[in-house]
């Protein structure tokens, strides 16, 4: 028996939780026995795959700010690529200019973002009243490298030691060095200085990346919350983990754990979750995938399932079934074609820059942001040698592989609906590797 990819080396805690919700736990013992036998036969531990970090890609022509991906209709209606165009050899282009910060479209706004510590509500207000454009969400791989380089340049220019840099990052009196943080924020245009501040402090924190939580740590965390309340900085000092890690561990795994169910969801649970989410979103004219407060949802379910369990179950499973009139849709070659050309239309330098929530459109909206990201990774890994390629090289190959619009499958009898204009992929991932 093969382990699911999410449970293999490199899987995140969230990937593991997603898999365990539908995993037949009775098979785990056989899996462990097989692995132990194999390790014993080899007279040593099984080595994991080595990791190669691809060089950063060259920047494509600067896209328009706030650009949206192409619509599925436009993609399916585009002229097919000519045969001689498909035969063109992909040229490898590596250019360090990818790390050069983009020229801000509005210098005044760029200065504002890099110097003023604006709250989330103030940023939203300025976006409405002044047209301020700023980035939210996860920092991309290129932004990570830009920040790393900016900190190193600041250190070298001012002849500072690593210890001194850490003192600036984590000053005991919580005073912020304005000149330092403004300079670092300038390296990642359109990121508010407050977002850069919190991101850098989290990513470089000495208590970060502590690995799996041990049962003894869970007990210390529960006791700390009982005595200190949900004051996470104080709890962090007691537990020896980052404040954000303590908060997430407690909320997602420990709160109400005595009455929390695990494993496979029952039909009644699925129906209850669907009712709660649709009442909170669809019935109020909100987005059922992106406008959900999962803590409230979990509470409405009596905390029998945690906020993270509810979110994963909805975004990965129930949302697409609800949108498809109660029938579970299946990913198709046509979906893969649309996804590739939507990603291409964004013209990003690296796929970590993609906001997956903006990809769905009116006529192609069954798949959640997380599903689209996972499907993209499967497509990406179908390219031979993808580990050492830049995003642009992978994109060029996938555009050629997915140049032709797949034919729409004919419906046979009254079989299960697979999706809007979809064909079934026999093994779940075969559609991407074609």
UniProtKB/TrEMBL annotation:
SUPFAM superfamilies referenced in this protein's UniProt entry, alphabetically: Homeodomain-like
Localization: Nucleus
Annotated keywords: DNA-binding, Nucleus
Top-level taxon: Eukaryota
Domain Myb-like: 205-254, 257-318
GO MF term set: DNA-binding transcription factor activity; transcription cis-regulatory region binding
The HTH myb-type domain, residue ranges: 210-258
Gene Ontology cellular-component annotations: nucleus
Entries under Pfam families matching the protein: Myb_DNA-binding
Biased composition (Acidic residues): 423-434
Gene3D superfamilies from the UniProt entry: Homeodomain-like
Region (Disordered), start-end ranges: 405-434
Protein name, as recorded: Uncharacterized protein
Species whose genome carries this gene: Heliocybe sulcata
């Amino acid at each position: 028996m093969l382990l699911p990819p999410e449970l293999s080396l490199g899987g995140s805690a969230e990937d593991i939780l997603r898999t365990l919700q539908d995993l037949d736990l009775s098979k785990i013992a056989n899996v462990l026995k097989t692995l132990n036998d194999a390790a014993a036969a080899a007279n040593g531990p099984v080595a994991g795959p080595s990791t190669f970090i691809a060089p950063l890609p060259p920047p494509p022509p600067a896209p328009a700010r706030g650009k949206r991906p192409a619509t599925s209709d436009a993609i399916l209606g585009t002229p097919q690529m000519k045969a001689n165009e498909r035969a063109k050899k992909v040229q490898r282009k590596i250019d360090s200019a990818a790390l050069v910060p983009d020229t801000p479209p509005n210098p005044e706004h760029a200065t504002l973002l890099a110097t003023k510590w604006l709250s989330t509500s103030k940023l939203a207000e300025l976006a409405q009243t002044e047209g301020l454009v700023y980035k939210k969400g996860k920092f991309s791989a290129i932004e990570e490298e830009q920040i790393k380089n900016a900190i190193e340049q600041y250190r070298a220019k001012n002849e500072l030691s690593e210890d001194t840099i850490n003192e600036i990052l984590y000053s005991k009196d919580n005073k912020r060095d304005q000149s330092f943080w403004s300079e670092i924020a300038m390296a990642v245009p359109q990121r508010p200085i407050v977002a850069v501040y919190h991101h850098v402090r989290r990513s470089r924190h000495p208590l970060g990346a502590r690995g799996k939580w041990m049962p003894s740590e869970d007990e210390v965390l529960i006791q700390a919350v009982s005595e200190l309340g949900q004051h996470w900085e104080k709890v962090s000092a007691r537990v020896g983990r980052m404040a954000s890690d303590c908060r997430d561990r407690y909320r997602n795994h420990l709160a109400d754990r005595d009455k929390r169910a695990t494993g496979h969801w029952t039909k009644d649970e699925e129906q209850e979750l669907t009712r709660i989410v649709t009442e909170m979103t669809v019935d109020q004219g909100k987005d059922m995938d992106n406008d959900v407060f999962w803590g409230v949802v979990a509470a409405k379910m009596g905390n029998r399932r945690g906020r993270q369990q509810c979110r994963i179950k909805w975004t990965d499973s129930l949302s697409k079934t609800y949108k498809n009139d109660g029938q579970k849709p299946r990913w198709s070659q046509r979906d893969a074609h649309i996804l590739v050309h939507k990603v291409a239309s964004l013209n990003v330098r690296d796929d970590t820059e993609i906001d997956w929530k903006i990809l769905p459109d009116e006529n192609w909206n069954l798949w959640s942001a997380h599903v689209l990201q996972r499907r993209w990774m499967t497509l990406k890994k179908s390219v031979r040698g993808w580990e050492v390629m830049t995003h642009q090289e992978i994109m060029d190959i996938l555009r050629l592989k997915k140049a032709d619009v797949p034919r729409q499958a004919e419906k046979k009898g009254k079989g299960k609906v697979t999706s809007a204009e979809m064909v079934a992929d026999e093994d779940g991932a075969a559609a991407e590797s074609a």
